[in-house]
Amino acid sequence: MPDAWEYTLYIPHDPRAVAISRRTLRDILTTHTLPALLEPAELLASELLTNALLHTTGPAALKLRQSGHSFRLGAWDTDPTPPKATTPTETGTSGRGLHLVEAYADDWGWFTVNGTDGKYIWCELGTETKPD
């Protein structure tokens, strides 16, 4: 069974932080020899962090955790409002974030942090090779 590990990357309220977080995520997954998770984890982290920065005015954080055969990533932001999936339009550039999380993640959820200190949205990806 793989060793457990956890990282937290605190980011400022700056749209450039999403790209920096993706590169950091890529380095962490490469270091821990999880290449199959690179693309889905980058997509999910980008969506969660972008939403955190779009819908709040405060800082955010990306949290990564490997435990057993499960990889969890999540984004914390300063707004305790529950996440809400919207119906994207055909030509719109927003509204797809939670739909992508539902499509790519094995599981996902959210909870408020300390009542009004924001929320944490998480999703999980399995790390075991699945038979065809």
TrEMBL record:
CDD domains: HATPase_RsbW-like. This is ATP-binding protein. Residues 11-108 form the Histidine kinase/HSP90-like ATPase domain. Keywords: ATP-binding, Kinase, Nucleotide-binding, Serine/threonine-protein kinase, Transferase. It comes from the Bacteria. Gene3D superfamilies: Histidine kinase-like ATPase, C-terminal domain (3.30.565.10). One of its GO terms (molecular function) is protein serine/threonine kinase activity. Pfam families: HATPase_c_2. Residues 74-94 are annotated as: Disordered.
